[in-house]
Amino acid sequence: EKGGHEYFMLKEIEEQPEALANTLRGHFEAGRIILDEQRISDQDLRDVDKVFVVACGSAYHSGLVAKYAIEHWCRLPVEVELASEFRYRDPVLDRDTLVVAVSQSGETADTLEAVRHAREQKARVLAVCNTNGAQIPRESDAVLYTHAGPEIGVASTKAFLAQIAANYLVGLALAQARGTKYPDEVAREFAELEAMPAAVQKVLSTVEQTREIARRISDSRAVLFLGRHVGFPVALEGALKLKELAYMHAEGFAAGELKHGPIALIEEGLPVVVVMPSPKGRAVLHSKLVSNISEIQARGARTIVIAEEGDETVRPFADELIEVPAVPTLLQPLVSTVPLQVLAAEIASSRGYDIDKPRNLAKSVTVE
Ligand code: F6R
Question: Chief localization class (predicted)?
């Protein structure tokens, strides 16, 4: 069943190109983005003036990634919120609010309650879900299914990448409805998404190298993760994977926050994983991160850098370097998350833990 793999998670990591391709398939026809079930009229979609993404855990991180794309493409304010916080606040919602509920299982209690609350307030709810006919899509006004296939490993991998892709399709559908992107621009963005399964496939060729790096740091007490822009939620996701699987203290930070506190944590030998932006795509962010890395390296950190292939400037600051293919900035999370999944799995495996069934965790959290 594990297809010759030691654990499901590794199999599911390797299934990510297919999960992405399946999630995108059939959603761009006759020059238009189409969702699966749309019980929201085109007019109502045009009238949306605010977007909330509500979700838990990794699904929440997929929302944080999508915020960058949806705001950029649609010129709409996007708030991303943990479902467990959203439902107990008094969020400002009305019929022009689109609430995107992201859930692999479609049964997560907090996300479901957030959906119910949003609908009571007359907001439109769109579910992004990996499970056909689950409760969250059943109670939503529109649905876009991710087609990652069943995810057995408790730690989300392929469902997370598929959620990012699906959230992006939601963003493109909104941009199309609102006219903030011309049809040829929507087509181009979709084509770039369609190139991602091949890019992720390329990252999979670095799995063995990443596993070796993981074994070298598996004795550490803690690991920090740094990123900027879309690399920030990737850092959060990398830290979550490591907590879940290796039971290690792990934190993700926005690199710009280092000086505001976290740099005090840096000590000799502490592994710090840095998610680099492209030197070409976001040159300013890139140079800021290079200076962040040099600062933490000077204080003794052991830097593990995820960078675009051919990024020479970062090399002198990388104690370990994992190269990922060059892709458009907004799509980088789809490639840069993969080594972090492998790192967490392999550190956990070196420590002798059951990767597919980490302690204290359930695959689907149907109670609060
Ligand atoms: C992390 C993980 C969890 C889930 C979270 C939401 O690896 O799997 O954080 O992402 O429990 O679950 P769903 O997406 O089913 O609502």
Answer: cytoplasm
Q: Are 306 and 340 in contact (CB under 8 A)?
A: yes
Distance (Å) of CA 58 to CA 164, 204, 319, 363: 10, 20, 28, 12
Distance 242 CA to ligand 1 centre (A): 14
Element (H, E) at 315: none
Three-class DSSP category at 66: helix
pTM over 0.95, yes/no: yes
Extract the tokens encoding 104: 């692999």
Taking CA atoms only, the protein residue closest to ligand 1 atom 11 is: 57
Please, are residues 123 and 53 in contact by the beta-carbon 8 Å criterion? Answer: no
Residues contacting residue 207 through CB under 8 Å, at least 6 positions apart: 13, 14, 342
CB of residue 104 inside a 6 A radius of ligand 1: yes
> CB neighbours of 229 closer than 8 A, spacing ≥ 6?
68, 277, 282, 285, 329
Which residues of 208-336 form beta strands (DSSP E)?
A: 222-227, 249-254, 271-275, 302-308, 320-324
- Phi and psi dihedrals of 268, rounded to 5? -50, 125
Q: How far is the C-alpha of 98 from the C-alpha of 96, rounded, in Å?
A: 7
- For residue 58 and ligand 1, the question of a CB distance below 6 A is answered with yes
Q: Indicate whether residue 16 lines ligand 1 (CB < 6 A).
A: no
Tens of pLDDT, residues 270-329: 999 999 999 987 789 999 999 999 999 999 999 999 999 999 999 999 999 999 999 999
Number of residues written out for the chain:
368
- Write the pLDDT tens digit of every residue in 208-245: 999 999 999 999 999 999 999 999 999 999 999 999 99
